Amino acid sequence: MFSGAANVTGGSVIVNPNSPHYDALHDAIRSRYDSVSCFPKDTSVLRANSMNLGERVKRADASTLDLMKVFTDHNAVVRVIHPSRVPESRNYERHRRRDGGYGNVFSLVFRNRGTAEHFYDNLDICKGASFGTNFTIAIPFVQLTAYDGDERENIDQLGLPKHIIRIFVGLESPDRIHAKMEAALGEVETFELSAGSEF
User: Fold this and answer.
1) Which of 15, 50, 73, 121 lies 20 to 30 A from 194 at CA?
2) Which InterPro entries does this entry report, sorted A to Z (predicted)?
């Protein structure tokens, strides 16, 4: 969300000097990235795009907390994963800034593959990874990272849910995002009544 316009990308690493791991991390980073450069025009665009970052983050955080309610009690969704929810919240709260939010990313674990696919296919939002956009995007990230047999086996061994869709919530009107999610869930409900929904 830092860039906001998805027209430039960049990154940084900040190592807490108070961390007991500071020296090891700092040395490892410095040895691997001896010199780092950024093109001046990229830096200018990043700076301009990030001027209202705080406001955008707060809006997206609020929309995310509200949007997750749509899925909380839906019978097609087994779990909603987000730092504001147990069990994730226990660890997150220890590190969250006093007035910080929980982020604009959450994941939906669906009951089965067919339901997850049907939700994703009927969700009328952009699909793909989020690289600093201000609009809502969905991605079946576990499936995209494990498309061959060995990687799928690792997913099973790690206990990662396969029927999962990650949502990056953007700055659109919350009502608009809600309507799109509810429409996709409506299609899922119809699909689940059909014979092909249990795979």
Assistant:
1) 73
2) Cys/Met-Metab_PyrdxlP-dep_enz, PyrdxlP-dep_Trfase, PyrdxlP-dep_Trfase_small, Trans-sulfuration_enzymes
